[in-house]
Every structure is written in C-alpha cells, then in structure tokens.
Amino acid sequence: QLASLNDKPSFSSFFSVLPLNFSLRHLFPFRNHQTCDRTHARETETGARQPPSSRKAQFLRGNNIKVDMYRSAASRLRALKGRVGNLGATRYAASSAVASTTSSSPGIFSWLIGERASSFPPLNSPFEGVSSPPSLPDYVEPSKIKSKTLPNGLTIVSETAPGPAASIGMYIDCGSIYETPQSCGATHLLERMAFKSTRNRSHFRIVREVEAIGGSVASSASREQIGYSFDALKTYVPEMVELLIDSVRNPVFIDWEVNEELKRVKDELSQISNNPQGLLLEAIHSAGYTGALANPLLAPEAALSRLNGDILEEFVAENYTAPRMILAASGVEFEELLSVAEPLLSDLPLVQHPEAPKSVYVGGDYRRQADLPVTHVALAFEVPGGWHNEKEAITLTVLQMLMGGGGSFSAGGPGKGMHSRLYLRVLNNYQQLQSFSAFNSIFNNTGLFGIYATTTSDFVAKAVDVAAGELISIATPKQVSETQLNRAKEATKSAVLMNLESRMIVAEDIGRQYLTYGERKPVDHFLKAVDEITLKDITDISQKLLASPLTMASYGDVIHVPSYESVNSIFHAK
C-alpha cells in the first residue's frame, strides 16, 4: 500500500507516466532557438551592413521570439503538471483518504515555473508523538578514586568511569637507573619480554587468552618506572587481573624466548639511524649526567652478549617488590578489583624500599659521525627539582608548549602548531631547517629542557646560533607577550584534558602519580596551577635553565657543528 505517499507524484514518478518518445524538446522549443542562431550566423558571415533601425528591429524581434519560447514552455509545464497530477492521483491513490489529501511540498515544477515554495516547519520543532531525550546535566561529578595499601606495602587503586571497557595496569618503581654494570640493558629487554611465558602459562596460551576476550596488552619502560597494562571489556575484569599479575609476578625467562628478543633488540639498534631524535635524547642523558641517569635506556650492543635469563630473573627478584608496586585501574569498581587482586598480591613479602640511586648533572658534549645528508643537533640544560618541584615542572611544560616548533611541514594539517614561537620566528624564516622544536624530559628530582634541530651540514652553525638566540630570548624580560603565554596555557590544558579521555592514559596517570606523589592529584589542581603561571614565572625558569651547564649532542655530518666551548660561551660569557 502507498497510503503514506503524497497525492502529487514525485519527479521520478512524473517521468514514469510520460510517453516513451517524450524528450525535453516537448517542453523547450530548442529547434526555433537554434534556427535563430543559424540565421544570425549566416547574416554575420555575409557581412551585410544593415541600417541601425533594421538591426534594432531584428534585436527586438529576436527577444520577442525568446520571450514567446519561455511563455510556451511555462504553459506546457502547467498543462503537463495538471495531467500528470491526475494520472498520479489515479495511479497511486489506494483509498479515498489518500485521494482527498491535497497538500504536499512543492516539486520540480514549482521550481521551474517560479512558484513560491510553501514554508516548512523549523528544524528545531519536535516530531509529533516522539518524546525528546533528557537533556544533559550542567555538571557531572568527577569519578572518585579509591585506594588501599596492603600490609606488604602494595597499593591497589581504582577510578570508576562510564563505558563498557576497563584498563588495568601494574606500575613498578624500577627502571634503568637501578641497573648495575652487570645488568645494564635489563630494563630494555624486560620491556620486550613482557607477557611472555610464566610459571602457569605459555606465551602461546597468554596470546590466546587475550584474543579470546578481545583485549590488548602493552608494556613501557622508562628510566624510573616500568608499566604493564591490559585493556578489555569490564565483564572480563577477573581474567584481566589474574593474567596481568601472573605475567608480572611469575615470569620464566626461557632461553629461546630471551635469545629471540635479544636478536630483535640487536636489529632495533642497527636501525637506530631511523630515529635520530631518540638517539640524541639518549646521548644527552649519557653526556649530561653522571650516576644513575647516565645509564642507557636502550641496551648497548656490548651488553647483548652478556644478558640472559638469569640476569633478568635476578633483576626482577630484586626490584619487583610489593612497596614499589601500584595496581591501578580505570573503569573498574574498586570493590571488585580489590576482591580479585588482594588474594593474588597479599603474599608478596614486605621489603624495605631502597633509596633511589643518585645522579648529578654536569653537562657535556656528544658527537657521532654518520653518512647522512643532514645533521641532527640538540642543546639542553638541567631542570632542577623535577616532578617533586611541581610548580616549576608545570611551568616548564607550558614553556615547551609556548616555544613549540616541529617539522618544516605541518603533518597534523594546515596551521597545526604554527602559532608557536619557533614556527613563527624560526621555521617560517629559515627554509634550510627541516625541523626545529623544543623538548623536555622530566624525572622525579631533575630533568632536561632544550631545542632539537635538523638541517643541512652547511647551515648547522647558523641553526645552533638561532637555537641559542631563542633560548636567550625567552629568558629576557618582556620578550614573551601575554597573548603568547595565554595561548600556550590554553593549549597545555587542552592537551591534558584530551589525553585523559583515554582509559589507558588515565590508568597510567593514576599509577605513575602514586609512584611519584603517593596519591593522585585531581586534574583541577593541575589546571589551576597552569592558570596561575605568569610571564615572570616563564622568565625565572628560563634564567634558571640557562644558568646550568650546557649539554650538546649531534649526529650525522657533524664536521661543521660548532665546538662545545664556543656554544657554551654564548650562554656563560665570562
């Protein structure tokens, strides 16, 4: 039945009732128009010059023909509209109710003959018989965090979140700073050995169990912390917790699995030239620090022949202790997490938390020649206090956003990041620079801040001078405007809030904050701290940075890189 259709047929139904030999020339007499055009063309070719009065008369006659043509077309349209309307009513009317309905929206004929369209109801008018959904509340109370520290010192913490999925992670106060000369490179290898065979499961079984519930696992290692995470649906929380804890507590480092990962690490190191920025970041730490932070995060090639399962097992037994572990979850009810995790973790022995190894920043220079068409160079200075000096660490984060920078081409789309100082003042003015950006690396008690650049070897000396000038500029009063600072603060807050939209990032943030501060500070606390930053704070932190010794690192064609002494004298003139 077609009772829901309008009386008047649609444009497609109009053509369905026309004769088979119908064409548009039945509506528009193009033949007459073309005849007039051909007659005009012949007169033009003969070159006959007619008097002005004759040409005027011919012009008016041609216009009258066109007017008559359009009037004829309009009258034919009206006639066809009436005939088709009657045919459509006869063809589609299924009941007297349908036949009596005469109101409908104007169609293609109304547009062709110039009739005014009837008014439609506004888009915001509700549909009859359809109830509107409830409006969103003006304020949503943030999820509450609950935590409990077990008698052995291990902390279990969770934050509820809407949605069907959950993310759970185990975060450990352990990294490359705890390595000894014998265990150098263990952190890097442990990251790759995550979720391998345990005392209760083979690696194959772990993979199958993760796939069976549609989950994903990951691991990450830094100089101070190691993290293992599991992301899946909330209905599988018990399975997630049990598998995660088993992978962290009970690894068995089978020889063939260890050797396989050692080969992959060796391949990774052989391709380090594909990541020059990561290589320079490693070099800056080894050149700028003495002590624990100078330990390489990437396993050195010399250590690969020495690392084995026994060294990894000893390293785990010594550092994976209860007081240094945090089990953090996002999107999981705390009572459910506690009921599953506590029996699996309460038997870990209580071991005194060791004192963190010491590191001293001294500055230095690192250069590595390579057969590359470009030169990569970085300048860095110390950030005293690190995350434990919260105000300066947050100020430094805003400073990095203020300076910004990036590649010579905005990979994120036109204009992305191009409002930052390094884009406006450097990348837009020096086409020889392929990339020019600010970076930071902050730890619990110290950190690094600097500028990284990529350019051709003949321009590297100028690039170093430009980088030095930009660092000195931000340390000079009145060189940063209030508008630039406000833009950087808003960009920092936006980045923080958008990152916290991810469950996995929220779980990681909870775990790492508990390792650093012993609590998770609310996001409003950091947003307020960002809003309170002033131009004087930017100048003060910049001056404190430049007062520390310089650290330089370069890779590629380093022949034309200025000497350490000449660059250091720019910042520390005697």
TrEMBL record:
Domain Peptidase M16 N-terminal intervals: 156-301
Start and end residues of each Peptidase M16 C-terminal domain: 308-491
Location in or out of the cell: Mitochondrion inner membrane
GO cellular-component term (any): mitochondrial inner membrane
A Gene Ontology molecular function term of the record: metal ion binding
Membrane topology of this protein: Peripheral membrane protein
Highest taxon, organism lineage: Eukaryota
Alphabetical GO biological process terms: proteolysis
InterPro entries: Metalloenz_LuxS/M16, MPP/UQCRC_Complex, Pept_M16_N, Pept_M16_Zn_BS, Peptidase_M16_C
Keywords, ordered alphabetically: Membrane, Mitochondrion, Mitochondrion inner membrane, Transit peptide
One Pfam family of this chain: Peptidase_M16_C
Family: Belongs to the peptidase M16 family.
Biological role: Substrate recognition and binding subunit of the essential mitochondrial processing protease (MPP), which cleaves the mitochondrial sequence off newly imported precursors proteins.
Name of the featured protein: Complex III subunit II
Source organism: Linum tenue
